[in-house]
């Protein structure tokens, strides 16, 4: 499955537009509390535990996007947008969402 932020794929004409597909993940406050406990892993101004949690959430969101596109019979998803938002009471959760257009090449 080709995933691209661009609206087209060079040399690969789009035959059918199948619709918008999405993937969302919300990481709750408990995960961040656990991460605070491991804050000692900050090296060179970077927090490895936070980066790992964000990476996992983003990968899961992309897995959902890919699965939805496959259910539609897509070969690719174009025009992909990645968003990170703080949600919940007092910003207690982080949402990672990805969306794009499923296409058949």
From TrEMBL:
Note the InterPro entries from the entry.
UPF0145_dom_sf, UPF0145_YbjQ-like
Supply the Pfam families for this chain: YbjQ_1
Q: Which SUPFAM superfamilies match?
A: YbjQ-like
Regarding protein family, the annotation reads: Belongs to the UPF0145 family.
**Listed PANTHER family:** UPF0145 PROTEIN YBJQ
* Protein name, per record: UPF0145 protein VW23_027670
């Amino acid at each position: 499955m080709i995933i691209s932020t661009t609206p087209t794929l060079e040399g690969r004409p789009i035959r059918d537009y199948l619709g918008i597909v999405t993937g969302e993940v919300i990481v709750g406050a408990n995960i961040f509390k656990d991460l605070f406990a491991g804050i000692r892993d900050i090296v060179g101004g970077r927090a490895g535990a936070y980066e790992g949690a964000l990476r996992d959430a983003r990968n899961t969101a992309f897995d959902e996007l890919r699965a939805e596109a496959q259910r539609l019979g897509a070969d690719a998803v174009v025009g992909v947008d990645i968003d990170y938002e703080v949600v919940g009471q007092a910003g207690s959760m982080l949402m990672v969402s990805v969306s794009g257009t499923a296409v058949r090449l």
